[in-house]
Amino acid sequence: MKTVLFTFYKIFLVPHLVVYHTSAHKKIIDKDLERWASSKGLQQSKTSLLLHFLASAPDFRTLFYFRTRSLVSHFLNIYCRKQALFTIDVTTKLGGGVLTGHPYGTILNADSIGENLYVNHLVTVGEVNGKRPTIGHNVSIYTGAIVIGDIHIGNNVKIGAGAVVVKNVPDDCVVVGNPGRILKKTIETHA
Predict the structure, then answer these.
(1) Residue 66, by phi and psi: left (phi above 0), alpha (psi -120 to 50) or beta?
(2) Are residues 111 and 74 in the same domain?
(3) What's the rounded Cα separation, in Å, for the pair 171 and 126?
């Protein structure tokens, strides 16, 4: 019975496909779809994946509506609600491949965030005195972490649960604690 209802619900989501196919951000949405599919071990067409994640994941719907901001998207949100407690500031430049781990109570308010962000619940990325962070590619931010102010987070950085980051972090680091401190830095050598 549950499978029948889930399939029936997907029929109501068909207008989302029109929004997706006409979106100027379709390639970025595709990166989100690929990352989500990879994390769930799914191999389907992009259309099937889109309907699946729209039907089953309010946090994915939040990303989708952020990427496709329009009057139509606002209307679709009326009957297919986004995650109410996952906020992405409309001025944030957000790269593709975003993956979330039930981002309940999460706020993303940065100047820019690179590709392949992973973010968990109760995370705050925000401003201090109107200045916001810039976050690189392949960054993971875990439960309860706070990243605020006019700082730069490099590429391939992991910010541990509960960390409070108010200073720049170079590439390839793991940051933990309050105040945030670099626990590990991976140094790559090129031959």
Answers:
(1) alpha
(2) no
(3) 20
